[in-house]
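Protocol step 4 of 6: record predicted structures for both targets in the notebook before any analysis. Target 1:
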Amino acid sequence: MEPSRSNGDQVIRLDSANRELALAFLGWQCRLRQIAFRQNGGRPSDGMSPKVFVGDECQVAGRIVSILNKAESDSVLVEFQHFYRRTRDPAQRRADVTRFLSETYFQRPQTFTDRLTTVFPPGSRVAELLESAESCRLVFEHFNQRYDLTCEAIPLREDDPLYQSTFWHNALFNPDLSKDCRILALVPNWSRCAADPAPA
């Protein structure tokens, strides 16, 4: 994970405690996702699909599916596009990308960014609520671990590398994915995030 990141013209640097929390979250997510792809065909677990809250603790979505992204997404984008274009068979596309993601993809948490992404259909009310809110809360829970992340939801432009990698990732699993879908980045403010239990 990068030690700092740009938010408009402002560079946010993580202090040691926040960085530790961010890296612990990324490590946990990598473990959950590796298990999902190796044992469950990539089916998202509860720990990958947070509950979403905005405003005065109003839950706006039962769960959304979050995507964990490589910090350097260009090479991954090439792989996703290759899997998509070399066959028209949706089942084969899914099998190819599942095999790819189940091997070594999630073995190095430090190669991932903390900017999660998620995809909504055109006209999604939940997407509109998230975009208009100053912040939202994502609550991830799996077995005895919980992460409560306060995030900013940022709509991504089509030319953004995160938009592209997210779109092609999802297209491999969903042959009906609309080209007019809305893709949001969910950027944690680690000073307002918590884990229970906390990282050891």
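Target 2:
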Amino acid sequence: LPPTAGHIFADTEGSWAENYISTAAAYGIVKGYDAAHFGPNDLISREQMTAMVVRAARLAPVSGELTFMDAAKIDAWARGNVITAVKNGIVHGYPPSTSGGYPTFRPLNHATRAEAVTVIMGILK
């Protein structure tokens, strides 16, 4: 994406990532906690990563239900993006812990490097 002027969050001003975050905000890929706070050094949750990837890929929203045992823990703001990513095969849950159980998504867990690579490869296929 070509760099473009976007919103400057107060907590990113002067950061090495300021222009990247500003551009991503201008394209609607990232959002802050509020108008002043992005949290550039915060760890990213699985639901946050999923939302950013869906927005970056500009995937059309998909409706449906999630069958994850912990689907109720997915924040309302992220639910549509998680559904879209799951239905497009970009993200997957963790296998069930018991035979016949349901998989889990673990939306508030921090995303691992392996999960990030898997999501990137899912977008690129």
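Step 5 preliminary note on target 2. The mean pLDDT is 94. The chain has two domains: 1-42, 43-124.
Proceed to step 6 after PI sign-off.
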